Here is the input.
Amino acid sequence: MRAHSWFERHAQTLVGSLGRLVHTPLATLMTLSVIAIALALPLFLDVLLQNLRAATANWNQTIDMSVYMDKKAPASRTEAVAKQLRSRADVAAVRVITAEAALKEFREASGFGAALDALRDNPLPDTLVVTPTVTAATPDGTRTLEAAIVATDDVETVQLDTAWVTRLQAILDVVGRVIGLTGTLLGFGVILVIGNTIRLDILNRRAEIEVMKLVGATDGFARRPFLYSGTWYGLGGGLLAVVLCAVAVGLLTGPVERLAGLYGGPFSLRGLGWGSSVAVIAGSGGLGWLGSWLAATRHIRDIAPT
Amino acid sequence: MIVFDQVFKRYANGREALAGVSFRIEEGEMAFLTGHSGAGKSSILKLIALIERPTRGQVIVGAQNTAAIKLKGIPHFRRQLGVVFQDHKLLHDRPVGENVALPLVIAGVPRREIDKRVRAALDQVGLLTKEKSLPLELSTGEQQRVGIARAVVGKPRLLIADEPTGNLDPALALEIMELFKRFNAVGVTIMIATHDVHLLDRFAARRIVLGDGRVTAA
Here is the structure.
């Protein structure tokens, strides 16, 4: 068989199978919707998760560490430690708050002025506010930095308020895994839906397949239009899923921006993006091909002319 | 061209359709396969088209022992064969031209060649003007001729027909038979299963008569 006629045949089957789907718009639309909904659900949740990750990654960067000096250490040590920390590659800035400045601030802010006057000594230590660099502002990076600071002489304690961010990220990891599992299950669901649609299609066209086999068609030849149909279902369903996802993101954009505004941060919801959209549609097409291949291979083999 | 040697066929339900059938049809011959219904005519055609396999005995078609043809080889084997069915077995959602083209499309013949041969085949059965019609727009006799065009479009050396005139009135039946004679005249070996007595009377061709799964006259 010549390559030209091989391509010609495939092109014909390709267009023919598409025409067949367009010919029964309602049934086709129903199948596409089932596929699209099954795919759009995990897709949309994943988009939300990615946005949450992006948002919390920013929060992590704004976390500073409060380093409290030993009250028994001389004031010169505070400057020395600050200088030492500033020289570290993972530290962006170090602000020194002396015990006096802290007490003054506390006196003004708290309204306990009279009570503080009763104290003989300043109860507050010198404090260093350490801001990690952007690259070091990861859970691991801050842990390393914290350990290094704690080990420094004359440092009493380091207060690091990133534990909840770490916990949140662990939660997001779990959620991500759940979405992944759901997506996998629904992906299998898509294979089954398409496989079943193709199976019914094959049963409906049993007589036609018998005739084809009688005049010398191989199983592969009889299977081909169904493979194309299945792939079309997958591609169409994937496209519809991407559209559904985009619509959902669009509906959420306004409220999310308002919410972000209340927290004072400019944050806008990111959609699926072109690359991911194409990947989803292609992947869905692949699922369609697989589903139809499984169904068609089995059921066409079973059809024998009588 | 066709050799049956002590062929037995017993179906799964226990019915013995053929009980030791032996006959031989030479290349270029035209023969009727006849006998009352249930005598085994259909079974013989099914064995030739590899729709069924014999329980015992040898079936040789075009120098090939059919027992040696594996499942995968069946499609290719059938392409060398033209088969005409009593119920035409046309695809009703496709125009006549595409129905006739089907064996060539399946065999991977280039499109331009297909168009040429489809028109030649339709011309031979007198339906050149009906290429774009749907089968159901045609009369039964015309549909049968489409079936014949499809059977001969691949230029088979052997044509088998199962009751090709079964649903036709005598005049149309004669027309169909004239068609077969013309193909036979150009060297195609033809085997026609029929119980149409009138037809048999009008055509002088060899008869293989079946009765109760055996050849009673050849």
